[in-house]
Amino acid sequence: MNFRKDKPTASRAEVWFDDTTLSLQAISRQPAGMLAEIRKVVRMAARFREEFVQPRALEMDRRLQADYSYLPWEWVEEANRRGFFTLCLPKLFGGQGVCFPALSYFLEEIAVDCLGLANIIGAHYLGLGTLIVTWNLPLIAKVCEEIVAGEKSGKACLVSLAMTEPTSGSDTPEPDLLDKGEVACHAQKVEGGYRVNGAKIFISNGHFSTWHITVAFEDLKRPSESGVFLAVKTGTQGFQIGGKESKMGQLACPASELFFSDCFVPDAHVALSPDHTRGYSKTHRQIYQRLFDDLCSISRAGVCALCAGAARGAYEDVLKFVAATQNQGDYLINAEWVQCRLADLYQNAVIARLLQVETNYANGLYGVYKPLQSKAAYYAVKCLPGAFLRWGLRVMLKHEWLMKMIRKMLMEGFTPAHIQRTAGLAALAKFTGSDAAMKNCQMALEIMGKAGLRHAGGAEKRLRDAKLLQIYEGTNQINRLDLFRNLIGRGLPQVRFYEDAERRTSHHGK
């Protein structure tokens, strides 16, 4: 595949330059107001971290270790009271309309002290983001309306993404792997909607969420060609929330089992199906791939932000420890070996932060954020009253033909090279950031010794929490393959992808 249609003979130096200078390209295009907006969000998160998270994080972790069945609803209620679940909801849908990249900085700040709480907020936006990238505006408006109403009433309305199954996980977003795997969540087309049967596991926020954006398949033998995205509401007949998965870290955010037994989902709650993409110039398989590339481009940037927070938290733990601890009559911080390790810790935290920033620049230039981050759109939305925007949305929703036209334009109107860039950079950010976070957490325990192993110090909790960062949103091995697929192997005709997975599947079949 050529990197540019207008420059099919672009040199490798040009391609490398364009892939690795997103911040430079964004300087003149990004609205200047975003900086002040993000600073304001960081101050808000820092205040929340100081007032609420720091005094409670370790005590909540102890409580959850003692009683694993406990659900920290008080944390959800506090986040809801402070408006965190509508913070980045577009004004068009009744939210506060803070720019999407601000969420990454917000999550990083909270993750410095508690990855579990940061993930409660982040997983809500993952579910909502999945719904948004289907571009089903009537359904998006319905769910967002309930989120806003939940904030006003004090009864939080969260959204989860239900994707992982007992026999399928990191392969679900990749059509090539998906067709070689063993998915089992079946969506049977029936009159007026779908009947769903199957199970989902490790669903972040499953116990807290009102809506569950569920990925199922019409044909289990051809899943990439028959993927269906459904909005299933808690309380729906045939839908049940099971137990909490046993985890080592991030205990505040439950990983839930979800069960579907002849669960009927009406057409109005079907976010995307093969029927919706019939007549498009792109196949349903291509739309499925594009949807998950878009989703992973933003979700993996968010995970990288969590990684930056964890890496920074470990660095701050060590800095505080060596500045206060003496050895042989002098403070540890004056030992050169300690100073070198502090430099390593600082390096890892900064690398994670910079990759998150660069990935969000890519999403703003070429990805999901682009429509709202043009200067004209950004300032128009900021200046126009929310009530006027919502009135305009209600008028648009009355015209089904208009909704279909807008959706078709958004679903089909993409440049493959741009999707490769955002998805590849997001994969790089995810595995580099999570590896950096783990290195920092391990170094913190090595330097702090017995003091680091004490629960009261926080370092051992941080290590338990950080390990999950290498696993969810695609294992780091899958993310390395995604980077190769999108940025390294492109344009090389002799390259094949996921061959080892196919051989393992064939061997297993024998």
Feature tags:
12% strand, alpha+beta, four-stranded antiparallel β-sheet, four-stranded mixed β-sheet, 10 strands, 20 helices, globular, disordered N terminus, 510 residues, disordered C terminus
Task: Provide a descriptive summary of the structure in words.
This protein is an alpha+beta fold. The strands form three sheets. Strands 1-4-5-8 form a four-stranded mixed beta sheet. The chain has a four-stranded antiparallel beta sheet with strand order 2-3-7-6, with helices on one face. A two-stranded antiparallel sheet has the order 9-10. It starts with 11 loop residues before the first helix and ends with a helix. A hairpin with a 2-residue loop joins strand 9 and strand 10. Helix 3 (33-66) packs parallel to helix 5 (101-111), helix 10 packs antiparallel against helix 18 and helix 16 packs antiparallel against helix 19. Mean pLDDT is 92; it is low at 1-8 and 501-510. It has helices spanning 12-19, 22-26, 33-66, 73-81, 101-111, 115-132, 137-153, 175-178, 274-277, 284-324, 336-366, 370-373, 375-383, 386-397, 400-412, 416-448, 450-453, 459-467, 476-488, 499-509; strands at 158-162, 186-190, 193-204, 209-217, 227-233, 239-244, 255-266, 270-272, 326-327, 330-331. It is built from 20 helices and ten strands.
